[in-house]
Design brief:
Elements lengths: L13 H24 L3 H5 L20 E18 L9 E17 L8 E3 L5 E7 L2 E2 L3 E2 L5 E7 L1 H8 L8 H16 L3 H19 L4 E7 L1
Parallel strand pairs: 4-8
Antiparallel strand pairs: 1-2, 2-5, 2-6, 2-7, 3-4
């Protein structure tokens, strides 16, 4: 007895398998989004965070000889977009809008004052100080006041985050924010303010020690 051809199991073509897998992935993603917004589900399926970090170890100690004379607070909006050449943004690409807040210190390195950097007259009533120019420190990003406003990612980027050790990393925009803050500090007049504050500090200190005239200059 022969079996009719219509009763034989038909193999699913390759393109149909690919479409089915794609639909299943989308279904999982949308299901995860819907579960996240349902009341009570977040508490039921939430995760518990435990800090098992070891104690901090002291690696080195450095003596500081610089006078931090001024500090500037900066804020920058970073708009970073990455596109693929031959794929639409919905498939591959990302765009992050990030607000970065940080500070930059301006200081005078008193440890670089040369042997002839300080001269005092015989009566010890007049002092002349020659100091190096003020410098800018490295920008420090304030994590408590920096945040991502929006993130747009293509489907492939979202799938890649599922297998990434550091999903949704903001390292690129943070690095760019630090760079912009550093550039802004160069034109902010912080070093000029730092030199003025250093001069006022030294004049007040030396006058309290009995000096009537205190001259402070800056150079290389």
């Amino acid at each position: 007895m022969t079996t009719p051809l219509r009763d034989l199991p038909r193999r699913m073509p390759f393109w149909a398998k690919l479409v089915t897998a794609f639909v299943l992935v989308l279904a999982v993603l949308f299901a995860g989004i819907r579960l996240a917004v349902l009341p009570g589900i977040k508490d039921l399926l939430g995760t518990e965070t435990q800090d098992r970090s070891g104690p901090a170890l002291l690696k080195s100690i450095q003596d500081m000889s610089r006078f931090d004379a001024a500090s500037g607070n900066f804020q920058v909006v970073v708009d970073l977009e990455k596109d693929a050449k031959y794929l639409p943004d919905a498939v591959r690409g990302s765009r992050t809008l990030y607000v970065g807040a940080g500070t930059v210190e301006a200081y005078v390195d008193l440890g670089k004052v040369g042997k002839n950097g300080v001269t005092v007259n015989k009566d010890r009533t007049s002092a002349t100080l020659r100091l190096p120019h003020a410098q800018l420190g490295k920008p420090a990003l304030d994590a408590d006041h920096s945040y991502a406003v929006s993130k747009q990612r293509g489907l492939l980027d979202r799938l890649g985050d599922l297998f990434s050790d550091n999903p949704n990393s903001e390292h690129a925009v943070q690095k760019l924010a630090v760079s912009h803050i550093g550039e802004a500090a160069k034109g902010s007049g912080l070093t000029t303010r730092a030199e003025a504050n250093t001069t006022s500090m030294l004049q007040g200190l030396l006058r309290s020690l009995g000096f009537k005239e205190v001259h402070v200059s800056y150079g290389k």
